[in-house]
Specification:
The chain has nine helices and ten strands. By secondary structure, it is α/β, with parallel strands linked by helices. The strands form three sheets. A six-stranded mixed sheet has the order 5-4-3-6-7-10, sandwiched between helices. The chain has a two-stranded antiparallel ribbon with strand order 1-2. A two-stranded antiparallel sheet has the order 8-9. Helix 1 crosses helix 4 and helix 4 runs antiparallel to helix 5. The mean pLDDT is 88.
Length: 297
């Protein structure tokens, strides 16, 4: 994306996010990301001749047959990793009852995670989705690449309004072949994604970052109002003065949240749950501490 095509107000927002997120990573999350997301496994380094004491399971039979002498494969720990940010750009993200939209929090979270990854010398990629995959940026390293990722999240204009998380996960599973750390940043106002998420969890270290707004769980008493579904455009007239309506609204929201948590727990997908006005740094601290305790257990 050419920076000359970006409005000055958006460039200023990108700069603010860059400064803030770099400070958070350097001052508050230093070492936590690295300690939790260490090398994901072993990769091939070289082949050498067998010496007594080598594990016979590491013998490279092709090289052994070709040379007539036993050779073994030498493996080394993989330090560099791939981090994929999956960002939900559906219309429900352009909602916020406080000082910012859910989509704005998603962008800042993406920036923090991207800077943390780059500081750890990892590659960062981006997938923006609605009910279609709208943008895929292949994983790369470097601060210049991180700025591109942030610009894409902030400046992307969605072509569609709906959400299809299953389609986005299927696409990710096809194009990202190596093991990756996958952060799904969404409000998860979608269904029928369990099968796709199970496949992603088998291939990748998958973390759900769920962003909610208080008004999606608590309906205020403001009389008769028109309520519009952000993704379908369907409009309904409701009387918020009815206590029974507000109670039913709260019950439905809680059922949705509970169902999401139950599904993620069943699939063993970690969850970072955030209110849009919440201090996300504290939530990230809690998440990193939880992961660290689990690694040490």
């Amino acid at each position: 994306m050419d920076s000359t095509t970006i409005p000055a107000s958006v460039m200023a927002q990108i700069q603010r996010i860059r400064i803030r997120t770099q400070r958070i990573v350097n001052d508050m999350l230093s070492g936590e990301y690295e300690s939790v997301f260490k090398g994901s496994g072993m990769i091939f380094k070289e082949v050498r001749e067998y010496v007594p004491g080598d594990d016979v399971r590491s013998i490279d039979w092709n090289v052994t047959a070709r040379t007539g002498h036993p050779h073994v494969k030498v493996m080394t720990e993989e330090h560099e990793q791939t981090v994929m940010l999956m960002v939900d750009a559906s219309a429900s993200g352009r909602f916020g009852s406080g000082t910012r939209f859910k989509s704005e929090l998603a962008a800042e979270l993406g920036a923090v995670l991207a800077y943390s990854a780059i500081k750890n010398n990892d590659r960062v990629g981006l997938l923006i989705f609605t009910d279609e995959v709208e943008l895929f940026v292949r994983p790369q390293k470097g601060r210049k690449h991180v700025l591109r990722v942030i610009r894409e999240i902030l400046c992307h204009t969605p072509g569609r309004r709906g959400t299809d998380l299953a389609k986005a996960l299927d696409y990710l599973n096809q194009v990202v072949k190596r093991h990756a750390i996958v952060f799904i940043i969404s409000d998860f106002m979608v269904s029928d994604y369990e099968t796709a998420l199970r496949m992603t969890r088998r291939k990748h270290d998958t973390i759900a970052v769920a962003i909610d707004d208080i008004r999606e769980a608590v309906l205020p008493d403001v009389g008769v109002v028109a309520v519009r579904d952000a993704e379908t455009g369907e409009e309904t007239i409701v009387d918020t003065g009815l206590a029974s309506l507000r109670a039913a609204y709260a019950d439905e929201a809680q059922r949705r949240i509970d169902a999401r948590r139950t599904l993620l727990e069943r699939l063993r997908v970690d969850l970072i749950s955030l209110e849009v006005e919440e201090d996300y740094v504290r939530a990230l601290h809690r998440f990193f501490r939880m992961r660290e305790r689990r690694l040490l257990a």
